[in-house]
Amino acid sequence: MLALALLLAGGAAAGCGGRATTHHKPGTSHEQASGSVGTLLATVDASGHKLREVPAEGAPEVRLALRPDSEDGWNLQLSVENFRFTPDSTGGAALPGAGHAHLELDGRKIARLYGPWFHLPAAQVPEGAHTLTVRLYADDHTAWAVSGKPVEGAAQLTVPAPGASGGGHSHGDTPPQSPPPGQEQADRTVTITVRDGKVSPAPARTELRRGERAALRVTSDRADTLHVHGYDKELTLPAGQEATLILTADRTGLFEVETHESGLVLTQLLVR
Question: Quick check: 31 and 49 in contact, CB under 8 A?
Answer without folding.
Answer: yes
